[in-house]
Amino acid sequence: MGTELRDLQLVELDILKEFLRICKKYNLRYYALGGTLLGAVRHKGFIPWDDDVDIGMPRPDFIRFEEIAKKEFPQYIRFCTYQETPGYRYYVPRLTDRRVKVIDSSAAVEQEKEAWIDIFPLDGMPGNKWKRKLHCFRLLVARARVNYSMFSTNIDLKKKNRPFVERAMIAVGKVLPVEKIFRTEKEFRRLDRLMQKYPYDTSEYLINFMGIHKLKEMFHKKYYGEGADYLFEDVVLRGPADYETVLTQMYGDYRNPPSKDEMNHHNTRIKEGES
Fold first, then answer.
1. Domains of the chain, residue spans
2. Within 13 Å of residue 127, how many CA atoms lie on the same side as its CB?
């Protein structure tokens, strides 16, 4: 593992520890998601080539956290949302470390950002199969509109193994002025209303729709349950109770690391002079 990558992981781990402190203090529910859950199960910490921390919170806890985060964190950590943070152009909120600047070269336009971890809202999904399919379709359309509205800065053009539909949409975005057609703030509001249509606590299913795996991150809530504890570096994280079902649905054969050519790196590095 490169020293630079490890330095970034340790910055993110520090942010994560502050998040966990707040969740414990206020009894907030959360789950390790995606690559963070995979890292905890397979590596007992970060995936060695990854620099990502993904946390999901049931929407009711997420809403509480939004208010708590405004007053509880140390001054060097800030909670960024598209509603209240000037210049922040992501639907998913982040906890960032103001002291550490990173260079993100994954999109068409290289950007300077603050080191971060992602906090995803987990939302409810209908129990009826056909209602669920219809809602999924509407969510996918709303997400595509959001992505087009920020095509040059938010689409990871270096991501490997995209399905055909995503590759086709990216090809369209490269030739049409999609950022002029779709207005980001309007599309965010549309997506937000749609995601919260089915209340989390009364729904049979949950979804982390804004996760990288989209519909593969939809599960019957029994697989998450009250959660289970997983060692992650030198902290203990809560994650879905049935990690086997969750990780298999998302990654297939998750126990064996991908080949070097199939690894998705986040193309983020600490800005020179910041470490």
1. 3-270
2. 8
